[in-house]
Amino acid sequence: MPCSPAALDAELHAALAAFDAAAAPWREALEDLDEDVLAEAAAEARAFGGGPAAAVDELVRGLLGQLADWQQSIGELGRALTTATKGRPLPGWSTDAGRTEDIGWRQGRTTLLEAVARHHHAHLLGGELELPATRNGRFRGAVIPEGCAVSAGRRRCGGRRPVR
């Protein structure tokens, strides 16, 4: 157990540095992601005789796996930092670092969702898909087709079953 605040800070900085090194590939994988990356994967698959949808699916599944690993690692970092303090309160800088990493994860997730939406649905709006602000992972202010009723977050369109 670290005896002094300086020793505790050193241990916390070491844990953050190790996490930062482990998280770098996840950040890089999602940093420049957009619909063009997905289109390139599809085009490359077509060029080599593969299925473009399968190639995009494989890429997206891989990125979703990386997001899951990143999120799990953030949780492990929080537990490691808490364990290192041995009952003492965490310094503000370390909790800020954890929050910043969580924000980075959320931005990476949003980037992936937007890339997939733009890749699959941009053609519906003439090539440009404007995504509204999100709250709790759902699109706020989304356009509801005429003839659809909205109730408690569900849409009912023309007698069909509700869609979430």
TrEMBL record:
Protein name: Uncharacterized protein
